[in-house]
Write a structure and sequence with these properties.
The complex is a heterodimer of chains A (about 260) and B (about 300). By secondary structure, chain A is mainly alpha-helical. Chain A is built from 10 helices and no strands. Chain A has one domain. In chain A, about 75% of the residues lie in helices and about 0% in strands. The longest helix of chain A has about 30 residues. Chain A is elongated and about 75 Å long. Chain B has 2 domains: about 200 residues, P-loop containing nucleotide triphosphate hydrolases (Rossmann fold), CATH 3.40.50.300; about 60 residues, Alpha-Beta Plaits (2-Layer Sandwich), CATH 3.30.70. In chain B, a hairpin with a 2-residue loop joins strand 10 and strand 11. The longest helix of chain B is centred in the middle third of the chain and has 16 residues. Classes of the chains: A mainly alpha (about 260), B alpha/beta (about 300). At the A-B interface, helix 1, helix 3 and helix 4 of A face helix 3, helix 5 and helix 6 of B. Bound molecules: adenosine-5'-triphosphate and magnesium ion. The site of magnesium ion has 4 residues of chain B, from helix 1.
Chain lengths: ~260, ~300
């Protein structure tokens, strides 16, 4: 005798609705990203501390109101933390724990598997923008409407460039190596990649390199949009696009989702 | 056929699974069970040979086929930080008419661990979640790769009940196992594989029925006794063999005289014939005879 009434498992196969799959996958991944301590430290706490600290403490000279010059750096940091570091680490460990294989064995189409990850990444970035925007406003941030629109476009480009790099890193190396590399790159780009210290204040040689890095391009693009009111500028846009296309192209070949 | 470099993982393996039947793939570590399951579920492509699953070629894992099958991969798989219910709801969302995930969580005894992230679940709990993920989409065919590995006896019993219920409801099941009793209890068809090839196939009854009316007597004793001398000590026509170190079999009509002759002969060798069994061969005996290897040590 079995405890299961007859007909309990009668086959009724079929694929679920695409919209629902995308919603549930992206929702699950977003919730996990927002409750995972180390990821929250990286994506929210450090940017908040730096935003408040650099705006309030006069560690180096900035035009008043200081917060206006700090916000572009912090938004660039937030995008890099989520799209690159956090994403690469999560993907590295998801692969180790076999979730990609698990989902690849369901009716979830492969493109949707990728779309769900990207949607979750964008959802986390949206949360960051709202939280950091509100705190910046409380600190006296006075952006223009046009500046915010340009900044959103630049953020999306930054997500594309850093996201492609994050997937490339997290999708190809072993989880513990991904963890080490992603954190190291985050730290190096934060200080030397044009994020906290603007290109104009870096040594000339380093500034030239940083301008070609996604971090420098994203931060300069955001400064152009939010501080100078000139939009991101052709240089940063091209650099971000180039990183997105190249890293995305390599990732498509190198990353095995099965 | 599937090769990895010089290793041929699967070669010459013919399987047919009927709708609503249970097939057990039985074999030692490295026999090629997982490789076979992965070829059938589209995770690997065969280097040669033909595979049809529900009438479709599984290579590359076509979307249409994946919607009809349920898979429990060896070693499971989930986000490290996901809770069991979340994971099962996600897998359920991929199916058109899923079972109720909360009910299934309860059935599998995972509600006490509902708030624990996957990476902190015990091995047996991870196995249960993997099983739930394989069943939640109400597939026509499920692949269970070592479904009871690492489970306690109670959980194993539950899995057996589940497989029986699946079979009753018309779901076809292909499962792999190391456990003879599991294959014997669950399967309509047992296929014993070793080194990637079928070494025997049939119903459990067919496999365990000795040829003709010949009987067998099996016992354990110290290793390396001279089996030719043992056979010589018995009436003509009896055969004796050491199947695996320390395990002996005598084939022929087993009557009380023969039994006492065997134990007496062992005593003469200074050995105690232990664990003496007459009668039908168990699947385990079949397996040992065919592969010369112990499954469990
Ligand atoms: N990716 C791989 N690269 C190289 N060799 C492999 C690979 N996958 C499997 N093999 C080899 O193929 C053979 C069959 O492996 P498989 O995993 O199918 O065995 P199995 O029957 O599932 O064993 P187990 O009972 O331990 O799960 C083994 O010899 C294994 O070492
Ligand atoms: Mg295996």
């Amino acid at each position: 005798m079995t405890p299961f009434p007859a007909g309990t498992f009668t086959p009724a196969p079929g694929r679920g609705s695409l919209g629902r799959m995308l919603r549930v996958q992206a929702g699950t991944e977003t919730r996990m990203a927002l409750r995972h301590g180390e990821h929250v430290l990286l994506t929210l706490l450090i940017p908040i501390v730096l935003l408040v600290g650099l705006s309030v403490l006069r560690v180096f000279p900035l035009p008043e109101p200081r917060v206006n010059s700090v916000v572009p750096s912090i938004l660039a940091l937030a995008v890099m933390s989520t799209a690159f570091t956090s994403q690469a680490i999560a993907l590295g460990f998801d692969r180790r724990y076999g979730v990609i294989r698990r989902l690849a064995a369901t009716a979830l189409p492969r493109w949707l598997l990728v779309a769900g990850r990207l949607a979750a990444m964008l959802a986390v970035v949206a949360v960051q923008l709202v939280v950091l925007g509100v705190i910046a406003a409380l600190l006296g941030w006075t952006p223009t409407f046009g500046g915010v629109l340009w900044a959103l476009v630049t953020v999306l480009l930054g997500c594309a460039a850093f996201g492609a790099l994050g997937i490339l890193l997290g999708g190809t190396l072993r989880a513990d190596i991904v963890l080490a590399v992603a954190n190291l790159v985050w730290f190096v780009l934060l200080l030397g990649g044009g994020i906290v210290i603007p290109l104009a204040q870096l040594p000339a040689g380093l500034a030239a390199v940083a301008a070609l890095l996604p971090s420098g391009a994203l931060a300069e693009g955001l400064r152009g949009s939010l501080v100078d009111g000139t939009g991101p500028g052709a240089g940063p846009v091209l650099v971000l696009l180039a990183w997105a296309v190249v890293a995305g192209g390599v990732a498509v070949r190198a990353v095995k989702l099965r | 056929m599937k090769r990895f470099g010089a290793t041929t993982a699967v070669a010459g393996l013919d399987l047919t699974l009927d709708r609503g039947a249970v097939l057990a793939l039985l074999g030692p570590n490295g026999a090629g069970k997982t490789t076979t399951v992965e070829i059938c579920t589209g995770f690997q492509d065969a280097d040669a040979g033909e595979v049809r699953v529900l009438g479709e070629d599984p290579s590359g894992g076509p979307d249409g086929l994946r919607a009809r099958i349920g898979v429990m991969p060896q070693g499971g798989g989930a986000y490290p930080g996901v809770k069991a219910g979340e994971m099962l709801r996600l897998v359920a969302a991929c199916a058109a008419h899923p079972l109720d995930p909360d009910w299934l969580i309860g059935v599998l005894g995972l509600d006490s661990a509902a708030r624990t992230p996957y990476k902190r679940l015990s091995g047996g709990q991870q196995q249960r979640l993997a099983l739930a993920c394989a069943l939640v989409g109400r597939p026509e065919l499920v692949f269970l790769d070592e479904p009871t590995a690492g489970m306690d006896p109670q959980a194993r019993r539950l899995v057996w009940d589940l497989v029986a219920a699946l079979r009753r409801d018309g779901v076809a099941v292909l499962l792999t196992t190391h456990l003879m009793e599991e294959a014997e209890a669950l399967a309509d068809q047992v296929v014993i594989v070793d080194h990637g090839a079928v070494v025997a196939a049939g119903t459990p009854a067919e496999l365990t029925t000795s040829t003709g009316d010949e009987q067998e007597l099996r016992f354990r004793a110290r290793t390396g006794m001279d089996v030719t001398a043992l056979a010589a000590a018995l009436p003509p026509g009896y055969r004796a063999a050491e199947t695996v170190a320390g395990r002996y079999v005598v084939r022929g009509r087993i009557d009380p005289q023969v039994l006492s002759a065997i134990t007496g002969w062992c005593a003469g060798q200074g050995a105690l014939a232990d664990d003496v069994q007459v009668a039908r061969r168990s699947l385990e005996d079949v397996f040992l005879d065919l592969t010369g290897r112990e499954l469990r040590s």
